[in-house]
Amino acid sequence: METARRAQAEIQKAFKGSGEPVRKALACFLAGGHLLIEDLPGVGKTLLAQSMAKALGLGFKRLQMTPDLMPSDVTGGLIWIPQPGRYEFRRGPLFSEVVLLDELNRASSKTQSSVLQAMEERQISVDGQDYELPPLFFVMATQNPKEEAGVNRLPTSQLDRFALKIQLGLPSPEFEKDILRSGRREELLARVEKAAEAAAWGEARRECAQVKTSEAVLDYVLKLAAHLRAQEAHLSTRALQSLLDLAKAWAWLEGRDYVIPEDVQVLAVEAWSHRLSRTSTERPVHVQDALRAVRVL
Asked: Fewer beta carbons below 10 Å: N end or C end of the chain?
């Protein structure tokens, strides 16, 4: 957990302000999930992704998602090689360890589906052959608010692939002043140093997976889900498991080998809101209502 604290400190050398989005992004990575960031342009989404990849010491690729982008532009595809006269698979940007899919909801539905399928299966299938993605594969996707023109809204079934959906909001006055002073993202990123080797993060993920959850915590999560389902909100079993995985990672970051209800509470809104109603103003309210209504045992 000390390596994760160092990573957070390194990320915040570039992405200053509230540490909560950084900590939640780290928890998402450690839980083996993928992160969706929904916010307006220019609030630091790309900076967060780049600084996080650099602090983690992992390979990074950024893809600007556009309507004309083909699935093979992201995943890779078969290329004819004259010598020795055969097709070979060329890996696409999705084979990096940390992948930023910028403005995912501007991509075509077909490209969205291929990317999200790869996220779920952690492999890409081409012409009957499977190609494994890196063990630490982590997608950070950004999405414009729905009211913006030219977007293809992600269906709930695809949103379910994301463990967390967060918003960054406007930077703090101190962070904004620092941005204005430096003037360039490269100068901010130059401050960030690698906190650990890639092998350390594989071990950290294994330790997070071994964090214990009591029967009381399991019952608490089930009662939260039951409260939401009673309001005719669909919540998959995958969503419950994802929240528990996130809570384990959060507990590990807090220095514990067991989950407490507060770990669930701090993550529930952003772990479940995007999986429920399609009305954005209602989504967080539903989960917050459940947190208020369901007693901790």
From this structure: C
